[in-house]
Amino acid sequence: MEETFERDLAEGKRHENIVLNAIKLRYPKAHIIDGYCKEWDIYIPELELGVEVKSDQKSKYTGNIVIEIEFNGKPSALSTTKSKYWVIYDGIRYNFFEVSAIWDCINSNDLKVAEFTGKGDTKPKKA
């Protein structure tokens, strides 16, 4: 499991850097928040907002993006984010979403919540 975690962490950092470099073209003061930051991965001082970077490469096969809302019985991810934007890599492209638009999509389509234990996780999540 440790190997999977380390690999996934390195892959996540790679995606954060790709997104950061794209953002810095317009907002040069943007930077990655070092260490654990529940609110966001990238902060853009010029706009005073954060960006969360996610990856769901299985979505290119399933046509669905998994959005976590709870982990181990506690609100997490989308339920706790302070980010204005989420960037989700689908294995092909980086998709930029306003968090409010994600919530609108979930609520207006009456999407079902699934509960499962993800690969590499030891506790269940809802998404």
What does the model show?
The chain is α+β, with helices and mostly antiparallel strands and 127 residues long. Helices cover 29% and strands 24% of the residues. The protein has three helices and nine strands, in the order αβββαββββαββ. The strands form two sheets. The chain has a five-stranded mixed β-sheet with strand order 1-2-3-6-7. It has a four-stranded antiparallel β-sheet with strand order 5-4-9-8, with no helix packed on it. The chain is globular, with a radius of gyration of 15 Å. The mean pLDDT is 91.
Write the layout of secondary structure elements.
Blueprint: H1 2-24, E1 31-32, E2 42-44, E3 49-55, H2 59-62, E4 70-71, E5 74-75, E6 85-89, E7 94-98, H3 99-108, E8 115-116, E9 125-126
Parallel strand pairs: 3-6
Antiparallel strand pairs: 1-2, 2-3, 4-5, 4-9, 6-7, 8-9
What's this entry about, in short?
The protein is 29% helix and 24% strand. The chain is α+β, with helices and mostly antiparallel strands.
Strand order of the largest sheet: 1-2-3-6-7
Rg of Cα set: 15 Å
- Residue ranges: pLDDT <50 for 5 or more in a row? none
Order of helices and strands: HEEEHEEEEHEE
Sum up the overall morphology in one term: globular
Count of alpha and pi helical runs: 3
